[in-house]
Amino acid sequence: MKSKFRFLTALLFLFATVAVAQESQRQYLSGKGIDDAVSWDFYCTKGMNSGKWSTIPVPSSWEPQGFGTPRYGLGKNMVKADERGIYKHEFTVDKSAKGKRVEIVFEGSMVETTVFVNGKKAGAKHVGGFYRFKYDISKLVHYGQKNSLRVEVDKMSKNGSVNSAEREGDFWTVAGIYRPVYLEISPKERIEGFAVDARMDGSLSVDVRLLPRGKKYTLRQSLYDLVTGEQVGEAKEFPLPKNGDVQLQNTYNNVKTWDCESPNLYVLSLDLLKNGKTVHTKKERIGFRTVETRPNDGIYLNGVKMVFKGSNYHSWHPEWGRATSKRLSIEDALLMKEMNMNAVRMAHYPHDQHFYDVCDSLGLMVFDELGAYQASYDFEIGKRVLTQMMEANVNHPSIVAFANGNEGGYDLDLEPVFKALDPQKRFVYHPTHYHNGFDAQHYKSHNYGVHTFHHSRDIFVQTEFLHALYDGGAGAGLSDFWEEMRTSQNSGGGFIWAFLDEGIRRRDLNDSIDCSGDKGADGILGPHREKEASFYTVRDVWSPIQFTRRYIPESFDGRLKVENQYLHTNLDQCNYIWRLETLPTPSAKGQTVAQGKGQFPSAEPGLKAYMKLNLPSLRNADLLVLEAFDKEDNKVNTWTWPIKFPMDIAKRFVKEAKSDGKVNVETNGDKLTAKADDIKVTFDLKTGLLTSVHNSKGEIPFNNGPRFVKGYELKKLEHKMVGDTLEILSRFTEKRSWAKWRVFPSGLVKLSYRIFNIRGRHEMLGITFDFPETPDLKARWLGKGPYRVWNNRTRGQNLGEWGNTYNNTRTGAQWVYPEFKGYFGDLYWAEISNNSQSFTIVSETDYSFLHLFTPEMDEARNCQLPPFPEGNISLMNAIPAIGTKINSPDNTGPNGQPHSLNQHGEQKPLEGDYWFDFR
């Protein structure tokens, strides 16, 4: 993808510009991430593999490596896990570093860390697990010789506020040196750091900290395009005052701004000159953009109102804990972009620097967060770790907001510290609370949001909503929530909880993946980034290119109305390809009959336009497929619109099955058996139910139906030959309601039903049959797929032929996807088979659903236990919705409600027409 190439090119340029003598040099003592971790000696005081020296990869969390005691931080029955890890490592420092400043830097070690170099303490114990800290060890190291490093890491803090903020949250409280460790070697006279305010108009303000002062020192400021390496404007020199703040001011003409759709980046280089000679250089990537919070209106980026489409994100890997890598950061950010997200919330702590770098490069707006789950740090500790967080993160253009803790973990006394350390004065919000005109409530129901928050004047962003526990939330209800979010005047969008299931490898439980029950199983993806069905729903709902069409009529003239939901991009920068296809029957494959490509019409963000597809005649086509690509050639979404419907495909199937045979009928008491071709079907003359099916291979155990999900009382049953076809007609007490079996000479069997006068509210409607559940089952079907659907999560699955083998996946607790069991949408036909038999169901009913066995569901506050029919194979007219961990289905919006049928007047009947091929 072009965006990947641009990102890699930018990194190469950055690395090239870093490798100069005047810059600080890094010497890694650990790996840069989990992909190149370095083995250190390790001793754990308690739990698994404790009481003996071993080795451990650094960086990593020690629990998934088989040490200590895994501990989830939330709940009344938290296990006690307060072990200490002791690390040892040897390193050398080149003699050329003597006379320079040598610092040992820890990007992250949790939760309390004490460092010794050559037996001497490097400095005060560091408290706080999510922050970069360092020690000046220039006087402790032996240059040109081996040096010993000893690091003692306590899993729990002796400070109660740190434990409340970091160790008792809704996440795994793993421990260890989980981010890189390196030496930073700098000249004695150096630039410590700087903070920028780079505006969309090209103005640049730079606050520089801790510099030598005097007439002989000056600063030279240069700017380079990150991709091309070309210098922007001319370098400018600034004399340094003897005291006071150092602030550099400059303006650049014709800079390209940074936003989530065009993440243009530059390299800002500051050179410290002494008597005209460069003694130190410091470079950072920056982006020019302006972030504003306009009261009673919204959050604006470069003058454009933002509507955030994002997820909450843990830095996590099941085999490594909180330790990650640049590769994993790229993969995760690309998955977010694939879901058409434009933002990410760092829950509930600052993350790895490479993840911010990737957000800068790929265009993800970041809500950065001070670590504090539902209780804040003591002020002095909070001020120290906030300073560390801001010094590390302040220049990332992707960061558009800061959170002062989470869900009550706020310290208002820290608000001035945020402002003092951020020259951009980005807004500081309080997740799940109202603060300074910004409302960040969590998990409000759809109706409450519609009638309260979206009708107020305060800026409203749900920084957590649609909790994605197991198979609920995330995509379920998103289309209803999103319609309100994107159209409400005061809405800023929202962040789904959460990106991935936080499961940890349990070495003490046979290397199984543990999500601590329903606490960590709340991702759109599994712990190894396995895609759940909601992934594709989110992608479809949050596609910046939107169509409202559901099917293609015979009168279609090639025109499609398209809406541009980008924030900054004109639609004419995007392209598409289209295909006309034939749909497969159970015995014949589909084909592409025509294809083409084009450019979308001009439409500014928020506007609609008509596009014209230059299609040939639709006479020989069944399906129109359209794939959209953004200006970087990344796929945005795929849409499929049927031209032919189930009845059309069924006619082909029936035509293929014509026969000159006949139907032989036998009755034996209450049983009626019909034989045709090589099939034998038996019906119960008291109930009208199918009781057994046989073909030349033997029995097909499909029987005991049709039983209606909503029961109807049988009034009368009759059977007769109509020409060469057997008919068995069941009439019900409901006026004009009936069900009819027909057995044809070809051996095909057809079932039709019409039910009138259905009243009330129903979670599901349809018919069901019995069929045994065995592990050798397979399913092949034409319909929406390949994932199952719920009534409030039908989007994201496309029409086509799909196949799946049996699995018993409990979504979010196991990760074999797509799930075999559940409801599947827009059924045309389905072939069910095992090792000995198969049969096919062909639908003539538009927008019906196939229920294929009943999945095992993990209970979560009873919000996620939708009903299923009693049988194992059902043909459904209506299916239930699913809830979230927090809200029941009816609180997720209109599509989460039970199906309400008319109480007055005539209505269309509940109807279905299905063919069965048992041959």
From TrEMBL:
GO molecular function, one term: carbohydrate binding
Keyword annotations: Calcium, Glycosidase, Hydrolase, Plasmid, Signal
Beta galactosidase small chain/ domain sequence ranges: 736-867
Domain Glycoside hydrolase family 2 immunoglobulin-like beta-sandwich: 200-289
Pfam family, one: Glyco_hydro_2_C
E.C. no: 3.2.1.23
SUPFAM superfamilies per the UniProt record, alphabetical: (Trans)glycosidases, beta-Galactosidase/glucuronidase domain, Galactose mutarotase-like, Galactose-binding domain-like
UniProt cofactor(s): Ca(2+)
Leader sequence residues: 1-21
Domain Glycosyl hydrolases family 2 sugar binding: 54-184
Sequence ranges of Polar residues compositional bias: 885-904
Gene3D superfamilies: 2.70.98.10, Galactose-binding domain-like, Glycosidases, Immunoglobulins
Entry keyword annotation includes Signal: yes
Keyword presence, Signal: yes
GO cellular component: beta-galactosidase complex
Catalysis performed (reactions): Hydrolysis of terminal non-reducing beta-D-galactose residues in beta-D-galactosides
Domain Glycoside hydrolase family 2 catalytic, residue spans: 297-510
BP GO terms, sorted: lactose catabolic process
Span list, region Disordered: 884-912
The protein's assembly and partners: Monomer.
Protein family according to the UniProt entry: Belongs to the glycosyl hydrolase 2 family.
Protein name from the UniProt record: beta-galactosidase
Organism from which the protein derives: Fulvitalea axinellae
